[in-house]
Amino acid sequence: MRAFLLLLITGLLSACASTPLPPHDPDMAWVDLETQTGKLVMAERLDNKRLNDGRYFQVSPGSHELMVRFDFEVFIGGMGMFSDPQERLCYLTVNYADFQPGQRYRLQARSLGFNAYARLYNAEGKVLAEERLVNCLP
C-alpha cells in the first residue's frame, strides 16, 4: 500500500512539473520566483486569494499583495556539533503598489539562519519592495 501511495504521489508531482507555464499576457505583469538559499519558493496567495499554480504570479497593473511559501533548512547544534538539518516553513508577504503591464519582476526569497526574507526586483535588478510580514513554523 505504501509503495502504491508513493507511486501515485510521484506521478502527480511529475505531471505538475511537466505542465508548461501559460503564455505571458502583455496586459499583465509577470513575477518569477527564485531562491538561492532555500529548497522551495512557491506563490501561495495573490491579494489574499489562494492560487492554483505556485510557480509564478501574473498580476494586473497596480497594487498587489503577494504571499509566497518558502521552505529552507536550518542546522541546530552547539559546541561545534551540528544535528541533521531541520525543515523550516515560512510565509512571506510583499506589497507593491506599481506593477506595470508587460513588465517582468523577480521575487527572491532567502534565508539567514532561522530568518527568512523576500525582495521584489524589477527587470533591471532594482529592489522595489521587501517583505512586510513573515510567519514561520518551527
UniProtKB/TrEMBL annotation:
Going by the UniProt record, its keywords in alphabetical order are: Signal
Reading the lineage from the top rank, the first entry is Bacteria
Which segment of the chain is annotated as a signal peptide? 1-17
Entry keyword annotation includes Signal: yes
- What's this protein's name? Lipoprotein
Q: Which organism is it from?
A: Pseudomonas endophytica
**What lineage does UniProt assign to this protein's organism?**
Bacteria, Pseudomonadati, Pseudomonadota, Gammaproteobacteria, Pseudomonadales
